[in-house]
Amino acid sequence: MGAAFADQPTEGAAALRALAAELAEAELRAYAPVLEAQRSGDAEQVASALSRAADSPLNIARAATEVAELGASVVASGKEALKGDALVGVVLAEAACRAAGNLVRINLAGVPDDPRLAELSGLEQRAAAAVR
Q1: How many CB atoms lie within 10 A of CB 53?
Q2: pLDDT in tens, 59-92
Q3: What is the CA radius of gyration of the chain?
Q4: Domain extent listing, the chain
Q5: Which residue has the higher pLDDT, 10 or 61?
Q6: CA 37, 35, 60, 108: dihedral to nearest 10 degrees?
Q7: Topology of domain 2-131, CATH
Q8: pLDDT 10s digits, 98-128
Q9: Do residues 93 and 71 make contact, with C-beta atoms less than 8 angstroms apart?
Q10: How far apart are CA 102 and CA 8, in angstroms?
Q11: Gap between the Cα atoms of 87 and 110, Å rounded
Q12: Residue 42 has what DSSP assignment?
């Protein structure tokens, strides 16, 4: 909404809003296979399920970073009356990125060299930079 009032293109914001809804729905189901694998007692199944479960919050972190950056552009170039709301959105998006990042790290705790962790670190840095 801020993008529209700031005379900025709104297609990206609308797409991110739709994506966020899809990702939230996917996250609701992402951990169930881990629980099933844990009940089986098969360590390989658990590791595989945890790896797959990391994808959902990583996708949330990706989207949250985009939201933070979009909001920062509204703060930087938008109308004065919108800057407060846009900044709140940036802060919340950065927090969502960090929260999702915690889930990724928990799921990948047994695989410290997983390249998704490096990607996550970059996403968190970008989201944090958007707040500044």
Answers
A1: 24
A2: 999 999 999 999 999 999 878 888 999 999 999 9
A3: 17
A4: 2-131
A5: 61
A6: -60
A7: Four Helix Bundle (Hemerythrin (Met), subunit A) (1.20.120)
A8: 999 999 999 999 999 999 999 999 999 999 9
A9: yes
A10: 32
A11: 36
A12: -
Tokens (6 digits) for 39: 């009940």
Q: Are 68 and 95 in contact (CB under 8 A)?
A: no
Buried b / exposed e across 93-130, counting CB within 10 Å, b at 16+? Answer: bbebbbebbebbbebbeeeeebebbeebeebbebbeeb
Per the structure block, which two tokens stand in for 50? 């945890």
- Distance (Å, whole) CA 92 – CA 33: 29
- The answer on pLDDT for 58 being more than 80 is yes
| pTM for the structure as a whole | 0.88
